[in-house]
Amino acid sequence: MVNFWRIVGSSELRDASDVDSALEKLSGRLAVLGPEELVRFSEKLREALYRLDRRGLAEIPVNVRGMTFPQTDDQFLYARCACILAGEDVYDATLRFNDEFARFATPFVQRAERLLYLPSEAYEKIVGRKMESGSGFPIDSGSNVQGWLD
């Protein structure tokens, strides 16, 4: 059984180097999993991203040098990836209180996009072919209809 949050771990994520470090650690933990475990991890990742897909989080503006801009769909996806990389406690707090997400509405979280590819990269190294995309949870912004009703 895959313990998703134990594999993810937790990280401060104050800047781009923290994101890179968290991704490197996670990559190392994924490298020792078997193919089935990687598929389950990928499915849990999609579920976690889906649960964060909420209007209240998407509407938090990005702060860049004292100016604010709306999040793009991509920015919102990367910010959700960063929230997951921060760990289970931060993720749970974000689900309870939208304002916890504001720290991820920053340009440096673009680097967190790599989280989307780590499980399939590890899988391909082991199996020699790409991981089949599960039919589970969609990760596109606005796909969690319930989360956008608020």
UniProtKB/TrEMBL annotation:
A Pfam family: DUF4240
InterPro entries: DUF4240
Lineage top rank: taxon: Bacteria
Residue ranges of every copy of the DUF4240 domain listed in the record: 3-125
Protein name according to UniProt: DUF4240 domain-containing protein
Organism: Frankia nepalensis
